[in-house]
Input
Amino acid sequence: MRVRFAPSPTGALHVGGARTALYNWLLAHAPGDGVGGTPSRAGTLVLRIEDTDRARSTPENVEQIFDALRWLNLDWDEGPIFQSERSDRHQQALAQLLDSGHAYRSSATGDDVKAFKAANGADRGYRGEPEPDGAVRLRVPDQGHTIVHDVIHGDTAFPNVSLDDPVIARGDGSVLYNFAVAIDDLDAEISHVVRGADHLSNTPKQLLVLEALGAPSPLYAHLPLLHGPDGRKLSKRHGAASVQELRDAGYLPEAVDNYIALLGAGFAADEEFFTLQQLADRFRLERVSKSPAVFDEKKLRSLDGDHLRALGVDELTARLETFTGRTGLRDAVEISREKIQTLADFWPLVSFLFDGPVDDPAAFDRVIGSDGGADTLREARAALAAAQPFTAGTVQDALRSVVERREVKPGKVFQPVRVAIAGHTVSPGIFESVALLGREQTLARIDAAIARADAQPTAD
Output
């Protein structure tokens, strides 16, 4: 099996393109027939950059694609092959079709095509006559059908009589997308073309090019498009739209691979957590759903949390230190890892341990500035000052003793302490946070909170 991923470098790699790359990678990395007991892979993945749109196919966009694939851990076996560097081969194939009569030059305009259809019927494909100059059109047979054999959708037959003779090269000789793709797939000996369903309308044109050359055609699989939870085509309004945006939002590449692989893959509903190789072992192209799949970032967040917690503390710390640009985070990671779902969740949760409390007046007024919060803090401070040694266990005992003496719910004691040390009502576990912050810093912050409460004017 030889598959290819062939993006156009006209922007960042979006989520749908990433899934296409991933499905091709999974097919290439499926277990093959080992020789002499040595494990092998089923196929080869070719990376081709379809950069014939010279205005938008910039080096920066090409590098964005490479960067996204590397981040997703999707390597390739051959390439990158740049379509723009294959013009000599494209011209050779074009000349072959012109010489054999399977293609002809035509100066017909869009109005000419409309006039032809008005005279012959709207469902009749345009047919022209050879001219000395002009664009190059491929001659489509009037009889029969062009059949797309699709692993996912089955066979789709396109009546040839309804197909226009497609333009395959401009008047200046530059070839068009569908012609170049057909030649490139042929030369790379691609056996399976796996791509989005939005390419289905291109496939008959590519098959006709191959047929005119007397060449074999690959097997196709057109992946269903991705929709948002609202049922509309996936776009930026549904959240992160590109791979780089997902990375910047703090998602792990393992989780992104895992989640987008499941979008239409036909896996059992009770299975979710997979490594890349486990996905390759289980993935079957024929099981892919025909219907659009729903990309729900809430589900990705949940799965990302599972992958994040599956990392060891040292590995998670290393990734968080890279993501935040800070060092010395291991202790904070250890007490917060159960509460975060992405790398980006970490710093807002623990920054108070390093940079001091945040300023959240609403939280202060609600928790400390009213309902006896300052008095509770005074009692909590005394209990914490006496805790020996100052560990999560002794902190817990000290604060729970205040709960018992005041005969209140735990939150009535824990939240004033949390707001005093963190500035807001969210933190890692309160006992672990206080212990990590240390006695001196904890008492100093509580003292500052009490002083702030005492300084507030009292209501008349």
